[in-house]
Amino acid sequence: MKNAFRIGFCVAITALAAGAAPKPFVIAENGCARAAVVPYGGDTNALRYASTFLADYLGKLSGARFMVADKPVRGLRTILVGAPYSPERQEELRIRVKDRDTLVVTGDGAQGAMHAVDELLEHFGVVFCAHDFDYVPRMPDLSLPGDFDFADAPAITWRDSWTELQRHHPLHMLKLRLWPEEKSREARMFGLVARPCINQTVCTKYVPRKKFLKDHPDWYAQVGASPTNRSPHWVCISNREMLEELFREIDEQLAANPGTREISVGVDDGYRYCECEKCRALSETCRDPDGTLAPSAQFVLLANIVGEHFAKKYPQVRFNYLGYDNRLPMSPNLKCGPNVGAGVAELWRNHGLPDDCNERSYSLLGAAAAMSAPGTGPYVWDYLANFGDYTIPFPQHRIFAQTARYYRDLGVRGVRAQHAFPLVGEMAELKMWLYAKLLWNPDQDVDALIAKWCDAAYGKGAPFVKEYVDRLEHARLRQRWTWYGCYVRDTAHYLTGADCIKLYDLLTKAVQATRGDEPRHRLARRARFATLALALSRYGDMAAAAPSMKYKLPSYAWFFDEWNMAGSAESYAGHYMELGEGPVFSTMRDQWYRPFLNPTNALGAVTWPRTNATVVIKAPALTGGRTLTRATDPDGTEFARFSVSLAAYGDKIWMNPGLAEIGFTLPAGEAAQWYAFATVRTAASVPLDPAASYTGIYQPYYMNGRRQKRTHEIANRAIQGRLGDSNAWHSVCLGRRMLYPGSRLWVMPGVLHECAYTDVRELFLVAPD
Question: Alpha carbon of 709 to those of 64, 227, 487, 492, 748: distances in Å?
Fold first, then answer.
């Protein structure tokens, strides 16, 4: 009986053990390493690099010293990096406890294995904040559940950037799971030298105008009806001699570089479509279902011609066109060949809104995606910077989450973005981190991500930085139709003088809160550079707001010295100091800001006294482009009109005041705070045109009360048009705006669909109080 009991007891214990969770895989215990890191196959460059990196950071986490060995070490568990793996998705990573002694950290090739290393470290709480600071919590005990098994892959597989971080800090790019600069050691090591190509090559690299324009002008785009009028920035895609030369040059390149996987036949800047009879006939075959002609079909047609020519000889090569316009054809007759893809660049859009809020995006990026063959989704060349001044507050912190979801849902394969180039660009490191995280997984909570990064990067200073980001987000959304252009140096159309004080004060408190925590203090000082630059350009407005806020504002000279010292310190540290597209640190210092140190240059606020409660500008007072006409309705209503056809003018219509615009320029006596309105009617050709025309404001730029040379766009609103609504007048509002002497209110045509005309009855201004 006792033996039977013992046998039954043992069976029961065995059954319980079989159902119990496996023991944890212990990596470190009480600050001692319990595992060694082993790169699969021994000393291979990329896997050794990833393994050494992992061992280093496991040591920082636990305080232990981790060995990197060529094979398992007796008495230690094995963390096997880069074991053979068959991924289901490109760049997939996999972290799996294989058995009690082996943790496999691997993925799609060496790049996937490096992603897995990053994922494992982030699982333990590491945050890769900046190239010169990582948040690494101290955890003397490191372990994973015994059944741990995690796989993941990016939503967007080419994740690239144009910035100082990408160019000079390749390890930081690998930490963020972005692609490092292609000439870097890391790019060569991880096989990331060859990458998607959507460059502007036609007329520059291929069939270069400098070489062929003089002797072969007919190879280039005919402008208008005259065969002798040629544009050297695009080609005549129906010219057989030009095509043969293009084929020869591409063939020569591919033969010399057998590893090439992508060739771009992208259009050059300053292009004009070819208007010769044959090219127009080709474009005619690609009209939209509503009859709209999109001459940009020539981009796709040329890529298809090239792709078809090389399909058999170079089946591994993809040929890309560049959709560098406001729209592409939506014709069912036009599809990309199986070896043809698109690159899309949407420069002219509101950069304070997600890309899917751009009413033209679906007719450009959406059309490119719809034309793409399976597996050849488009690439995006994105713009996530204010090129006018990289350093001033620019409220883009939260918008990329929605943009990334839009890209993912369209099937976008890759994104390369131009960010604020220098490290002192406004919140440049946070924006880069968010960009990387959201391209990997667009469904992440962007607010939670911002909070996580700020807490890690700034510690005790984090609450102030998070409030700074929140206040900028409030300013971004405070008024609809505010235009956030990517070449705008002004901030007065979205930040008040009081806003500027509060933003400066918050980042100053972050600097104060991080004293004694040097890495975070350095990051806080770097972040504050944005509000020092803001103070130098908006000091007059801040000084006007300070008394009512009971805020003791430092002098302009103090701000200048602080900004100069901060910029000089970054420069001495070897950081890039081009602070805008063109102006470098010394240019801003000596030409933009130093003149205001002269007592004769008054630091004034931008304000003018009101003289009227309303201003109504009737049709006879409106001016405009060369297509402007005037007429009167049977009821006596006077109006101004422009009538331009997409078929006749094509790309020449877009935001071209000299061709098609109706507007009014404010004299000095009418400058003040106003609600701005336009009363218009449109003759749309489709049931609903989201942008039959536009209304907006161009504004002179004032710095500290002094007018500068530049003019900026500060507001823009698309005006919907409806078929059959051509007799109805509609008044549309651009919101409350501070209008200066020389501000111009305007109406211009859209480009998505044919619109027979747009009429403007009046522009009018109403005092807000």
Answer: 60, 39, 14, 16, 24
Per-residue pLDDT, averaged over 83-87, amounts to 96
Residue-wise pLDDT tens digits, 49-82: 999 999 999 999 999 999 999 999 999 999 999 9
Cα 760 to the center of its chain, rounded Å: 35
Q: Residue 702 pairs with which residues in a beta bridge?
A: 707
Question: What percentage of the chain reaches a pLDDT higher than 70?
Answer: 97
111: left (phi over 0), alpha (psi -120 to 50) or beta: alpha
H or E stretch covering 649: helix 646-649
Indicate if the alpha-carbon torsion angle 364, 365, 367, 372 is positive or negative. positive
Any domain includes 13: no
**Stretch 367-373: mean pLDDT, rounded?**
95
pTM above 0.85, yes or no: yes
Q: What's the CA gap between 506 and 462, in Å, rounded?
A: 10
Handedness of CA 647, 649, 655, 660 (dihedral sign): negative
Q: Which two tokens stand for residue 223?
A: 């402008």
Same domain, yes or no, for 371 and 283? yes
CA dihedral 465, 466, 471, 474 (to 10 degrees): 150
More confident residue, 651 or 553: 553
Can you point out the beta strands (E) in 324-463? Answer: 340-345, 379-384, 414-419
User: What pLDDT, on a 0 to 100 scale, did the predictor assign at position 43?
Assistant: 64
Burial of 401-419, coded b for 16+ CB within 10 Å and e otherwise, reads bbbbbbbbebebbbbbbbb
Eight-state DSSP code of residue 206:
B
Question: Which pLDDT band holds residue 661 (cuts at 50, 70, 90)?
Answer: very high
Rounded distance between C-alpha atoms, residue 49 and residue 757, angstroms: 63
C-alpha angle 728/730/735, rounded to 5°?
Answer: 175
Q: Which residues lie below 8 Å from residue 698, measured CB to CB, with a gap of 6+?
A: 711, 712, 713, 714, 743, 744, 746
pLDDT in tens, 505-556: 999 999 999 999 999 999 999 999 999 999 999 999 999 999 999 999 999 9
Per DSSP (E only), the strands in 505-628 are 614-618, 623-624
* Statement to judge: residues 624 and 489 lie in one domain: no
Higher pLDDT, 119 or 591: 119
pLDDT of the residue at 6: 44
Same domain, 631 and 521: no
pLDDT score for 505: 99
Closest among 569, 566, 570, 546 to 558, alpha carbons compared: 566
Question: Of 153, 188, 214, which residue is a domain's last?
Answer: 153
C-alpha distance across the termini of the chain, in Å: 99
Which of 127-137 are b and which e, b meaning 16 or more Cβ less than 10 Å from the residue's Cβ?
Answer: bbbbbebbbbe
Could you give the C-alpha distances from 594 to 80, 539, 560, 586, 711, in angstroms and in order? 58, 13, 8, 10, 22
Pull the structure tokens for residue 79.
């963390």
CA–CA distance, 420 with 438 (Å, rounded to integer)? 18
Please give the torsion angle defined by the CA atoms of residues 172, 174, 176 and 177, in that order, rounded to the nearest 10 degrees: 170
Which residues span the domain enclosing 729?
614-766
pLDDT over 90 at 643, yes or no: yes
* Residues 667 and 585 occupy one common structural domain: no
- Tokens 């040591």, located at residue: 59
Please state which of the ranges 130-134, 193-197, 206-210, 396-400 shows the lowest mean pLDDT: 193-197
SS3 100: coil
In terms of domains, do 478 and 529 share one? yes
| Neighbour count for residue 123 (Cβ, 10 Å) | 13
